[in-house]
């Protein structure tokens, strides 16, 4: 299987029919919402997500596109009352740091039509089908929404949100609330914008290990595609991995473990396989000697520290509560060692950030460097060798994003950022059978060697797989 040539051309025509601002249905008192110290670690990047629906309310009844749009707009306006930060704008304060101006300026809501059937969309190559087509380019505010009608009567809901304001967990809270209000259901979880959870301590304290993971930096070095060799350009692909393969990788990763106490998780096992697979494909003549690998860790359960009340409050916290620990190994070592050894290395990476003290220290570290911007080193440094970051989307509540016309038949996050580190997001499959959907944004050469040496694990997402035929 060969990677197709890099292209931004779509295999269908797209027509934008209407764009308007959707504001909260109730008045909102204009106010400033400062970003937390953990928010300030995120650069100005937009994250996309799509949900695809077949219009099959019943055998005999289908909703018209206009009716679905009205439902989406009305429920969005209701949802923005609670999630008012998404209806605001990012502005700079006097210190030059970003803040959210909660002024209910609204969300860009675009209606579009694509002359393609759902089963014809090339989900495997989101650069062709999703990028600039089904996910909107955010030009205003914090959130943008695009609803695309398909030739078959299906529907795609695409969103783009500013990562500085919300992480994937927060976006998921919003999406579930939006779908609940679309069906006139009460909200199961109200968002909390209580930033005091993440206030720095006085006096502040952080371990020296934070200096190894984060660095003050004016701007993140971004890739200019025109300056790169085609094989060094980053592209996106979406695969599926069967539950059977995931279980097999976990079995291999635990083969050398002496006790069940040290059993590695599915995410650790998958990450170890990915790290080792890419390393094994790097030629000995390469200038790269080291390979950095990071894992995104959510700090909500870590900060609660077993306190039930704190855990309940943090469960609804809206904002970024992330850390990205990483490790750096010699490529030859990754090639030679067993998958179990690599899985242990992944576990050691995660262990750096699974304590309350790590997140409190990170908050204090940011405070000590403000107002100078800072970012995780794996995103910012020019160290020799490749770098990949894996996020965990296994808690993605995609099946709950039902606006009244059924569960989505496909979903994916979409994050084709211009940084130098690769990004991988595993998510549950719409089949609900233990399979994973894997969004990958990696260098072209990395994806080529994955498809060459690991095609038995990574399979392109197709209409057949999604049962759309």
From TrEMBL:
It holds the Pfam family Transferase. One of its GO terms (molecular function) is acyltransferase activity, transferring groups other than amino-acyl groups. Signal peptide: none annotated. It comes from the Eukaryota. PANTHER family: SHIKIMATE O-HYDROXYCINNAMOYLTRANSFERASE-LIKE (PTHR31642:SF296), TRICHOTHECENE 3-O-ACETYLTRANSFERASE (PTHR31642). Belongs to the plant acyltransferase family. This is Coniferyl alcohol acyltransferase-like. It comes from Nicotiana tabacum (Common tobacco). The gene is LOC107762853.
């Amino acid at each position: 299987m060969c990677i197709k040539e890099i292209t931004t051309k779509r295999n269908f025509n797209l027509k934008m029919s209407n764009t308007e601002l959707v504001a909260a249905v109730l008045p909102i008192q204009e106010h400033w919402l400062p970003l937390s110290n953990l928010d300030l670690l995120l650069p100005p990047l937009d994250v996309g997500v799509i949900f695809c629906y077949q219009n099959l309310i019943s055998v005999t009844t289908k909703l018209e596109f206009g009716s679905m749009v009205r439902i989406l707009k009305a429920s969005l306006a209701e949802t923005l009352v609670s999630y008012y930060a998404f209806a605001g704008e990012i502005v700079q304060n006097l210190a030059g740091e970003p803040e959210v101006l909660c002024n209910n300026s609204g969300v860009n809501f675009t209606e579009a039509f694509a002359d393609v059937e759902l089963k014809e969309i090339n989900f495997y190559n989101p650069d062709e089908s999703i990028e600039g087509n089904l996910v909107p380019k955010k030009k205003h505010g914090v959130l943008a929404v695009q609803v695309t009608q398909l030739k078959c009567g299906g529907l795609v809901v695409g969103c783009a949100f500013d990562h500085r304001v919300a992480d994937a967990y927060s976006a998921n809270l919003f999406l579930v609330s939006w779908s609940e209000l679309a069906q006139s259901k009460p909200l199961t979880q109200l968002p909390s914008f209580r930033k005091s959870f993440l206030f720095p301590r006085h006096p502040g304290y952080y371990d020296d290990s934070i200096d190894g993971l984060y660095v003050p930096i004016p701007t993140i070095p971004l890739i200019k595609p025109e300056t790169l060799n085609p094989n060094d350009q980053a592209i996106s692909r979406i695969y599926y991995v069967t539950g059977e393969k995931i279980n097999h990788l976990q079995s291999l990763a635990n083969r050398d473990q002496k006790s069940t106490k040290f059993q590695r998780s599915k995410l650790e096992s998958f990450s170890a396989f990915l790290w080792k697979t890419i390393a094994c494909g790097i030629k000995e003549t390469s200038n790269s000697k080291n390979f950095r690998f990071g894992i995104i860790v959510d700090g909500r359960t870590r900060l609660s520290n077993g306190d039930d009340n704190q855990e309940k409050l943090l469960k609804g916290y809206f904002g970024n509560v992330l850390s990205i620990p990483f490790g750096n190994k010699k490529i030859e070592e990754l090639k030679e060692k067993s998958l179990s050894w690599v899985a242990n290395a992944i576990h050691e990476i995660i262990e750096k950030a699974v304590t309350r003290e790590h997140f409190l220290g990170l908050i204090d570290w940011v405070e000590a460097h403000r107002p100078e911007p800072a970012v995780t080193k794996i995103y910012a440094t020019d160290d020799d060798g490749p770098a990949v970051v894996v996020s965990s989307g296994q808690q993605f509540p995609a099946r709950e994003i039902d606006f009244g016309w059924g569960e989505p038949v496909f979903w994916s996050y979409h994050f084709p950022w211009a940084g130098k580190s690769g990004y991988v997001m595993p998510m549950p499959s719409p089949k609900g059978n233990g399979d994973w959907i894997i969004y990958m944004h990696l260098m072209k050469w990395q994806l080529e060697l994955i498809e060459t040496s690991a095609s038995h694990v990574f399979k392109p997402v197709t209409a057949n797989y999604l049962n759309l035929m």
